[in-house]
Design goal:
Nicalin, endoplasmic reticulum, membrane, Peptidase_M28, 19 strands, 21% strand, BOS complex subunit NCLN
């Protein structure tokens, strides 16, 4: 058996060292709360190159601590900002301070935004898309879970502006921070991206090559700050809906010997509308530069349709005013007459083409530059108003009854121009524009976001549906594909349009520092206690021994 002195010697000599070694190991190996506090879907800002100019966000990976706009320093942080708080000047500040990422929280119901907030959103979208940034920029719908994270991060951000260092330390220790993480691979260019043109033709009664042609065009793709959020209801879902309804009506008229006119009608759903109308450009190259293609040789006019679902005025945008007696002028007069009957204002807006610009404002300018009489019909007065190419442009924001009335006006004006007689003698109940028909076309356009990179596959269901619709209305229908030049591409899109972001709850560095001091202090107390335990034990024995002697 060991004596008391031997046991005390073992405790004094070895236990402190075992504690110094074992306790930190147990702390390190103990389970830590590393589960994600939240895991939610985010939508990345567009990344693309147009005419060798980079646009949008050039990064897709995130692994940094979160802060809000209230923080004094945003360097190496992921900035969380509510849409209502973000302005173009705030965005430039975030970029200039070296933030790694920006997460913009948008309301779940965009149609409920006030006019001021809608305009602010358009300004932010324009700012983000027109400039290039190395920062990863994402958008996310603000849910209750994300809102709680935002409030916690804002509390932590306010410590940067605390009245004193002590107040900042206390506030920092009492709040949780968040590490925002998006893993995976860095975004890369989409090679061999193909854009579809869907075209169909209704041949007139007679020798086809000798008949005049009217062309109706609408680009079917959309654009916005985030590709996956680009619904494009009004721009340009409304233009596509109007074109499809016109194709439905005229296909029935062309199938009847009594109403088969001596005029060819060509319908084109062009791709790449928001990347300088690349689909229309290739269409013109294929049919004007090719000597064996007489398709556009006798073109009376080209009618482009864009943004027509709301408002009470239709504007005919022209690069050169049509001369009196021309086909274009006759159509405009017919549209004015029909508009007056239906309570729709009809104006003509003349804007010369600026050849110094790299991009065209309206699609008809592509045709006008090739000396074809062309114009764009739109409710908008200014092509750069911000209402085109925005994530705010959803199908829910469209007025179906207004689009139906506008479609009826255009169809009636076209019929008046072609047949030069009262449309009441031509149209039957089955040929009239109906709200049910317009709604069905809108449902088709709302079936998926239509940003160019999302429609690039040759098996895309929307393109297939548009092709089958054209084939149902027209015997001559086809799809052609447009690709950028490999050596000097006019456009390049990048992948990673959506991602999953994880938010991990973390304590600030000050908390780790104080925890380290507390552990060291605890170990020091244990060490001192065990080191001097024999002396303490002896003192206690001496203190107790006299009392025992007195009792005896």
């Amino acid at each position: 058996m060991w004596s008391d002195s031997e046991v005390l010697e073992v405790l004094r000599g070895t236990v402190p060292y075992y504690l110094l070694l074992a306790l930190p190991i147990m702390i390190i190996l103990s389970p830590m709360p590393v589960d994600a506090a939240a895991d939610f879907t985010v939508y990345r800002l567009q990344q693309y190159d147009l005419h060798s100019v980079a646009h949008g966000s050039r990064s897709s990976l995130v692994n940094v601590e979160a802060r809000t706009l209230d923080a004094n320093s945003l360097a190496r942080k992921c900035v969380l900002a509510r849409l209502a708080d973000l302005t173009p000047s705030h965005y430039h500040r975030v970029v200039s301070q070296g933030a790694v990422a920006l997460l913009v929280l948008i309301p779940s119901n965009l149609t409920a935004l006030s006019p001021d907030h809608r305009q602010m959103m358009r300004d932010i979208e324009t700012t983000m898309l027109e400039t290039e940034t190395q920062m990863a920029v994402y958008l996310a719908y603000e849910t209750e879970e994300i809102s709680e994270i935002y409030e916690s991060v804002r509390t932590a951000s306010n410590t940067d502006s605390a009245s004193s260092a002590a107040a900042a330390l206390v506030s920092s220790l009492s709040s949780d921070g968040y590490q925002m993480v998006i893993s995976g691979s860095q975004s890369k260019a989409i090679h061999d991206m193909a854009i579809a043109n869907v075209q169909g033709k209704l041949s007139g009664n007679g020798v086809e090559e000798q008949l005049p042609t009217v062309v109706v065009v609408a680009h079917y793709d959309t654009f916005g700050a985030a590709a996956e959020l680009s619904g494009g209801g009004d721009s340009n879902g409304s233009g596509v809906v109007m074109l499809l309804e016109l194709a439905r009506i005229f296909s029935r008229l062309y199938n009847s010997p009594r109403t088969h006119p001596r005029l060819n009608m060509l319908f084109l759903l062009s791709g790449g509308g928001y990347i300088n109308y690349q689909g229309s450009k290739r269409f013109l190259e294929d049919h004007l530069d090719a000597s064996d293609s007489p398709l556009l040789s006798e073109t009376r006019f080209v009618l482009c349709l864009d943004t027509l679902a709301n408002g009470h005025t239709l504007r005919l945008h022209v690069s050169k005013k049509p001369k009196e007696g021309s086909a274009g002028h006759a159509f405009y007069q017919a549209l004015e007459t029909v508009g007056a009957e239906l309570g729709i204002g009809v104006d003509m807006v003349h804007r010369k083409i600026n050849l110094q610009d790299d991009t065209q404002a309206w699609e008809h300018e592509k045709f006008s530059m090739r000396r074809l009489p062309a114009f764009t019909l739109s409710r908008l007065e200014n092509p750069k108003s911000g209402e085109r190419g925005s994530i705010l442009d959803t199908v829910d924001s469209m007025d179906v009854s207004t689009l139906t009335k506008h479609t009826n006006a255009v169809a009636t004006a076209m019929l008046t121009f072609i047949y030069n007689t009262s449309v009441h003698d031509i149209l039957s109940d089955g040929l009239k524009v109906s709200e049910d028909s317009v709604s069905s076309w809108l449902s088709l356009m709302a079936s998926q976001p239509r940003s160019p990179q999302l429609l690039a596959g040759k098996s895309n269901p929307l393109v297939k549906t548009l092709e089958s619709t054209f084939k149902r209305f027209m015997s001559e229908a086809s799809v052609s594909w447009v690709k950028a030049d490999k050596r000097d591409p006019e456009w390049v899109f990048y992948d990673v349009t959506t991602a999953s972001m994880a938010a991990y709850a973390v304590k600030p560095a000050a908390f780790d520092f104080l925890l380290t001091i507390a552990i060291i202090s605890y170990l020091s107390v244990i060490y001192v206690f065990l080191q001097y335990f024999p002396k303490l034990y002896t003192a206690m024995v001496r203190a107790v021994s006299p009392q025992k002697n007195k009792v005896q």
